[in-house]
Amino acid sequence: MSLKIVLVSILVAATTAHPEGGHPSPTYSAPSPSYSAPSHPSPSYSAPSHPSPSYSAPSHSASSQPAASYSAPAPAPSRPSYSSSSQQYPDSPARYQEDWNVADQDSGNNYGQEEARDGYDTQGSYYVNLPDGRLQKVTYYVNGESGYVAEVTYEGEAQYPEYQPTQSYKPAPAQAYKSAPAPSYQAPPAQAGYQ
């Protein structure tokens, strides 16, 4: 325990002691500025030099050139004016008739449409072959306030053929492996002097 007291007191003494002769205390001073102002030549400006303008009246002789004459410009073309009274379109009801169809036996496509209109009375039909083999036909009409009235009919019997899976690929042909051919070489002829 006494050893501990001695060590602690040495430590306290070492931390509180001021070095008097062993180490000089550090001193710091700010550096003094050492620069000079930049030197620039003083600006000097002079007025630009331009030749002085000189004008003289043109000289014309009365016999060589005719007197100048000017006339007023032509008036600009007037813009067309549009008024509702100049073009009247009668309010007549539409009237048309059209039809079209596609019949391709190779692909099985068969569809089309026909329509006729006379004023507010419109009537027509369209048809299409369905995938089950039936023909779907829609007949419609529109008359004034009645709106679109359609009747859908089917012609033919739906066909659902039995599913027949088909092979979508061909297997690779079987490889026929043959044994390696026997070597077909002959020993070289013996030469004189070699044994």
Automatic annotation (TrEMBL):
Residues 15-124, 164-195 are annotated as: Disordered. One of its GO terms (molecular function) is structural constituent of cuticle. One of its GO terms (cellular component) is extracellular matrix. Keywords: Cuticle, Signal. Residues 1-17 form the signal peptide. It holds the Pfam family Chitin_bind_4. Residues 24-94, 176-195 have a biased composition (Low complexity). The keyword Signal applies. Transmembrane segments: none annotated. InterPro entries: Insect_cuticle (IPR000618), Insect_Cuticle_Struc_Prot (IPR051217). The keyword Ribonucleoprotein does not apply. This is Pro-resilin.
